Each structure stands twice: as C-alpha cells, then as structure tokens.
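#lab-general

N.A. 3:47 PM
ok so I finally got the sequence cleaned up, no stray characters, all 173 residues accounted for. can someone with queue access submit it? mine expired

B.Y. 3:52 PM
send it over

N.A. 3:53 PM
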Amino acid sequence: MRVLPQAVNAAIFVLVLALCSTSSAIVFNEIARFDVNFAFASDLDPEDEIFDDNPKYIGTNPLGVAWNGSKLYLAGHDNFGSSLLPIGLIEVLNPTRTGVHTFDTSDFSDKFGDIFQPLGRGYTGLALSGDRLAASYDNGSATANGIQLFDTATNSLVWDLSAAGTTGRGGSG
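B.Y. 4:20 PM
back already:
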C-alpha cells in the first residue's frame, strides 16, 4: 500500500523536472522610467522664498495618471495648500524614451485645466481614450469642473458638467 504514494511522488517529481528543463525565462522589458518631480515643485528658485514660479506646477502630487503607450498625462492634487499656484493637468512629452530621465520644463506640455482648489483637494483621476482625456476633480462640493473632457491634440477643454446641465446630488442648483 505504501508503494502507490511513493510512485505518485516520483512521477510528480519527474514531471516537475521535465517542465523546469523545457520552460523558458520570462523577460520583462522596461518601457520608460520617469522622475517627474519637476511638475510638483512650485518654486524653481530656492533663494526666492516668496514667489512660486514654476509654470509647469500641477500640484503637490499626482493623483491621476493616464497612459496609452504613447501619451502620458498627469493630474495634480494639493495635499498641503502650500502654493498660490493652481493645480492642473500636464502631458509628459516623449514618454517612450528608455533609461532614467530627470525632466525639466521642455519635457512637459503647457499646463492646462488650471483650477484654484481648497486645501487637500484636486484632480482625482484621468482616463485616456482615442483623442479624448477625461478628468475627474474634487473640490468638496458639486462643481462644473467635477468631470471634464479635453481634446488631446490641443489639450483644450471640450466639455464639462456645466455644458451637461447637471447638478450633483445634494447640490444647490
């Protein structure tokens, strides 16, 4: 009776060895790696502590990312309310370069979708489909900016909730 379990174990061992010897390695290829801290630094001149002067600043951190393999967008959120600059959206230009890149102003589109937000608020998500970029925004109450649609060729606003004539639940409109 004890021969059967040993035979089954031996057969499984041989099968595992056969599978291991014929399997191929899985290879992961890096597409790109980004250091996008530039878009989250409001002050480019550390000696000048009064003015926030980065025209590409989109917030203290990215809360939304949209990527389709050739276009990359970031959406800003402000956790601290420490900047007088509005949050916004930005496209990372040439996102398919390989290797490690520290970006500067030439690696980003002009900022768009600018909104002055309350502390701890901002863009909460992005979706990219074809030539349209959808963005969700949270300011703590119903707002026409809550859902926006942009044209990716020009990064211009195509539609928002005010165009739809809607009011969020609990809204006063």
